[in-house]
Amino acid sequence: MDMASVYRAEYGRCVATLTRLLGDIGLAEEAVQDAFAVAVERWDPPPPNPGAWIVTTARNRAIDRLRRESTREARHAQALLLHQPDEPEEVGPVRDDQLRMIFTCCHPALSPLAQTALTLRLLGGLEVPEIARAYLVPEATVAQRIVRAKKKIRDAAIPYRVPEESELPDRLPPVLTVLYLIFNEGYASTSGALVRTDLCLEALRLARSLAALMPDEPEVLGLLALMLLTEARRPARVGPSGELVPLAEQDRSLWNHELIAEGHDLVRRCLRRDRPGPYQLQAAINAVHTDGPATDWAQVLALYDQLLHHTPTPVVALNRAVAVAEVHGPAAALAVVEDLDLPGYHLLPATRADLLARIGRNAEARAAYDEAIALATNDTERAFLQERRSRLDS
Asked: Mean per-residue pLDDT for 131-160?
């Protein structure tokens, strides 16, 4: 495992653990970054347990930094850290360091974008461009929000603590958003390999922890089901040469049918509760995709109609247009797509190009593919779009 892989896999866990030990998010992040800098110089090869090495080194670096400071607060923090056991007993309803960190970063004193941007950076290990892509906003905006969030946590002395049971539901929406975005970045990464398995599995693990913590929240179960049903298709999503394989062309025998069965069971549990929400509806759509040898597009469209009612965003409308094309034809879908505005989102011109090609407007389709190719940041997705465009030339 190279250093970049270790960083992606361990950064979030280490920051969360150090925050529990130090009680200071900023100091924890700096200490972990220092530890990784030391690792770059010393590791050859990496130790058997890289995360434990980073945590131990970061803790020692934090103690050294506190010793150099002469304030009363620094001396008090140093004393606490020196006398803390290696594995302090966890208290409160949340038993997972990273899950507790997510709830902490999603404090109501922070704005919604600041909550999720800070958590994605600290816990998901996502870089600013990846977060900006998830929100379809400029990178500078994300960077500013992260800096302001850290400053507010410090200035307002927002504590790193486990929320009380009664506080958990109010903290839930941004927590669900964070887990959803971490999984999405893993499933279709901004750059590099198409799929980042480490992020997918970590988001899924945290979603399972959240479902164990809040088993009566339908949207928590819906998000877990959505991840399970999406993760189940991952083995068939990339071809033998690393190429992207769209859903309609995937070998369904490669899907993980145990995950599909678990996801379907969760969807049925959500349906019995009859409290539909966006994550439950997305899970239900994926349940239809994974039920039987072919997709029932009429049912998918009906579910997208409900989802658009709950979440009237251009991205949902774009995804719904794909179902419209299967049920009512590409011309009807194109009429929907032409009214959408998603600056910088490569899937809009990509979808438009596919619809134009299907109705024989090849010159316009080529131009739309060129736009999508220019906007795509992932090499695998860009290669897929280039291949589709080349079909028009031939």
From this structure: 82
Q: How far apart are CA 172 and CA 261, in angstroms?
A: 26
Rounded alpha-carbon distances, angstroms, from residue 172 to 88, 101, 156, 166, 214: 26, 13, 22, 11, 10
Omega of the bond prior to 45 within 30 degrees of 0, cis? yes
Alpha-carbon gap, residue 83 to 353, rounded angstroms: 63
Structure tokens, 82 = 């020196």
Q: What is the largest CA-CA distance in the chain?
A: 74
- Cα–Cα distance, 135 to 316 (Å, whole number): 14
Q: What are the structural domains, with CATH classification, of the chain? A: 1-89 (1.10.1740), 296-393 (1.25.40.10)
d(CA 197, CA 186): 6
Between the CA of residue 378 and those of 29, 82, 153, 347, 386, what are the distances in Å? 28, 45, 34, 12, 12
Alpha-carbon distance 345 to 244, whole Å? 18
Which residue carries 């299967």 as its tokens?
A: 326
Structure tokens at 91: 């208290």
Q: What is the pLDDT of residues 28-79, one digit of tens each?
A: 888 999 999 999 999 988 888 898 899 999 988 888 887 776 565 555 555 5
Residue 371: CB atoms within 10 A of its CB come to 17
Q: Rounded to whole angstroms, how far apart are CA atoms 290 and 252? A: 9
What residues does 307 pair with on adjacent strands?
none
357/372 Cα distance (integer angstroms): 14
Residue spans of alpha helices (H) in the chain? 3-22, 25-42, 50-68, 72-82, 97-105, 112-122, 128-135, 139-155, 168-187, 197-213, 218-231, 257-273, 278-289, 297-310, 314-328, 330-337, 347-358, 362-375, 379-393
Tokens of 345: 């989102």
Answer for the pair 301, 320: CB distance below 8 angstroms, yes or no: yes
The pTM for the full model equals 0.83
Q: Which residue in this structure is represented by tokens 């050294």?
A: 64
Helices 72-82 and 50-68 cross at an angle (nearest 10°) of: 150
For the chain, the residue count is 394
pLDDT band at 185 (very low <50, low <70, confident <90, very high): confident
